[in-house]
Amino acid sequence: MDGFTIDVETFKRELRRDGVRCALQVRHAERPKMDPDDPTFGDSLPVTAEGERTARALGEMLGEFRGDVRFVSSPLRRTRMTAELIAEGMGVERPEIPTYEELGNGTFYYDDPAEVLDIFKPGNFFEACFEYFRTGEQKGFNNLYAASDALEAWLRARMSGRLLVATTHDCYIAAFLAAKTGMEFTRDNWPRFLDASAFFIYPDGTVAHKLVRTGLSDGICGVPGSVPAP
Fold this sequence. Notes:
There is one protein chain. The chain is α/β, with parallel strands linked by helices. It has a six-stranded mixed sheet.
């Protein structure tokens, strides 16, 4: 692993340290394949049966923090389901999971969602993202660095306890890490389903940003012909 990438066990060791807090932005669990022309970016798509299983598994991995965790989610169905399933796996009963457009289609990064949908046509998604991360600018997007600073401040304001779990989407996680760490993303190291960005805040006020590889999925895009969870 590079200096910005950690596994779940390393993440947990870091969060166990006295006074450390973290906002964990988690990519939603596996979903069916999305219609590339859907202007809602797959708002109504659920997670698959495999996505349901792996989201619960991630919750089980994080279970030791159940007593000091808060959840927030993108409004999209698959992100809300992912948060609920992680909470279930952690053993958190009846969690409050407010939803925020800032973690979904109203993200800090998108200036014009219609333009974003147009440049995210099949075959161009990764190229458009990589150019944005490299230059800081892209059609339909806000400035990468200003947007990432705004997102970091938004997360910090909601970190009332040790762990904030924010279920969101892959391109936002990659954008945040590209801006905050200088990570260079490719198709090979793109955030998989249930991978996450960890924004650590230490007692002395210093911060760190890491990509957390959960190892729960190899999937990058939705699964064609997959069976949605009931």
